[in-house]
Amino acid sequence: MSDHAIALTVNGRQFTEQVEARLTLGDFLREKLGYTGVHMACEHGVCGACTVVVDGLAVRSCLMFAVQADGAEITTVEGVAAPDGTLNPVQQAMRECHALQCGFCTPGVVMTLTSLTEGGNKPDEKTLLQAMSGHLCRCTGYQGIRKAIKQLAAGETA
Amino acid sequence: MKPAPFDYVVPATIEEALEHLDRGAGDATILAGGQTLMPLLALRMSTPGIIIDINRIPELQGLSRGEGATRMAPMTRQNVALASSDLATALPMLTRALSHVGHFQTRNRGTVGGSISLGEPAAELPATAVALGAEIEAHSLNGSRRIPAEEFYIGPYATVLEPDELVTAIHFPDWAKGSITVFHEVARRPGDFALVGLVGAITLDQGRIARVGLAWFGMGPTPIKSAQAEAALMGQDPASIDWKELAAMAVSETDPFEDHSASADYRRSVGRSIFARTLPGALNQGAKA
Prior knowledge:
Chain A is an alpha+beta fold. Chain A has two domains: 3-78, Roll (Ubiquitin-like (UB roll)), CATH 3.10.20.30; 89-154, [2Fe-2S]-binding domain (DNA polymerase, domain 1, Orthogonal Bundle), CATH 1.10.150.120. Chain A has helices at residues 25-32, 89-96, 106-117, 125-131, 142-154, and strands at 3-10, 13-20, 51-54, 57-60, 73-75. In chain A, β3 (51-54) and β4 form a beta hairpin. Chain B is built from twelve helices and 14 strands. The longest helix of chain B is centred in the last third of the chain and has 25 residues, at 264-288. Chain B starts with 6 loop residues before the first strand and ends with a helix. In chain B, 51% of the residues are buried. The chains are: A alpha+beta, B alpha+beta. The A-B interface holds A 1-2, 4, 20-22, 24, 27, 42-46, 48, 51, 57-60, 62-65, 67-68, 112, 130-131, 133-134 and B 1-8, 10, 34-35, 38-39, 41-43, 51, 53, 55, 79, 102-106, 108-109, 189-191.
């Protein structure tokens, strides 16, 4: 068993930490750094709740070790709204369309959609819906999520 | 759901990775994209003593077109390969198969070589490598060799790779321009492993089948090349083929298993249906294009 020093950026803040090799990125973000918006559910890559953005790409944080994130730039759901609390377009659309029920799968959904729509990218509705196959909602609240995606794709939110 | 303790090394070159593998002597596991290995670790179905992370070896990234073949470095991310217009032009069958691998989020990390080296029997890429006639290049400290994909798989998650060998490239031979893509997968939801899948390519020459490669996934302990069906198709005019008969022959070459999702008989039945539907469908479309 080995320990490793890592340095990474999370939501714009820099961290240097010592991690055990087997610690997943998701557990690291939650337990070591306190980003509890990262929701661990199935812990083997099926459900998508733990999705975060690593160097611009949406990935499952249970399927990556913290040690592998050395040097990476990570965004969690805590990092997507503006500092004054203004929701990002994905959050806003989800709020308007009632796209969450219990909220457990929500951070993962927000991170996938944010990664795809950030920086002026305008993927079509189909692309966004296909990316949703990587998320499970145990409330089966998919219709709200679909509605939010429709609204996002049509660019109706500010 | 937490992996058992292990030592972690992160080599910067292939040479260094091979030294770790050699020293690991069977207790070492390669970590590529991790999208299949990490669940196995979390479920403790895999408990290696040493994990060799090859994510920081630049030579293992990227794909290139060469003389008569596409060379895929094993750490090419599935989404990178999927987005490659070069690949879509040269090997549309592979692009099609890639679009069914896992989910968007797992393809961001999952690699072509990782999937092909692990040999999950219901995965798309190992069967695609078998169907298209790919060769898998492996290196150890003692040298290198090229293994035809057809001979690479010996059981679920079992390949002919020696414990000291690392996959360094996958070579996909060219298929003539205009070759037809055969692909059909039945899964419980998009992105899941297949219950039953069929993948392949067909080249027509003056209305007759001049080259064909077909393989099943989810239909046995390994991807299964449909050798008899291929032989029966060669030289045929698609219009004169009895597809039902041929589908039965192709399914008889498989060895499906039973699990919580489906019985072996169900898999055979679905296999016959998709074979008899997909091949003539693809050929019709190909003839129109």
